[in-house]
Design goal:
With 230 residues, the chain is an alpha+beta fold. It is 18% helix and 43% strand.
Length: 230
Amino acid sequence: MRIVVADCSVDYAGRLSAHLPRAKRVLMLKNDGSILVHSDGGSYKPLNWMSPPCSLATLELDAEQEEAGIVEAWQVTHKKTADKLIVSLFEIFHDSSHDLGVDPGLIKDGVEAHLQELLADQIELAGEGHTLVRREYMTAIGPVDILARDANGGSVAIEIKRRGGIDGVEQLTRYLELMNRDPKLAPVQGVFAAQEIKPQARTLAEDRGIRCLVLDYDAMRGMEDQNTLF
């Protein structure tokens, strides 16, 4: 990644036109060809940008640009739309490049593995009288997150997601089809558990006889709001 701090102006031309007048800004040029223009404010959102796939070229300055004090100019062109972002640099204060390597991605608090651990410890949240059989119960097509038994001794398969979508319901449906073929487990009830369940996923789950369970992650960790009056 290349980081440039410069006195610059920026012009965007394409499906829309936009102009950033001359000011000091941070320019981020990434290896994927994208560029982001940031100011010292406005939180995380750049003032302007060009998303990949795109290419950057240094322009040859004409007399008018040189007379205006421009020392360097870049043209970033989107390969599909031909939109252009032109950056005119009047003074460069910092210019450095850094190899950031492969990013492991964002690891968020409340990931599925932790939710699984918490629900296994608090299995009563799945229903009164429920007991834990085991976590990561293996089937022929992969492990179901939790296998439990209800108050009547019936099998309960629980699939846990951070955000519950249709794909998660489909995944649990496949597990239930296999588990219900096992006479030692059948009949198996399905529970789709998540911090947030999308309306379409809830409709599909209920249509298939799968119960939905919304998990309050903070409450499960004992971090519910203590500042309420009642």
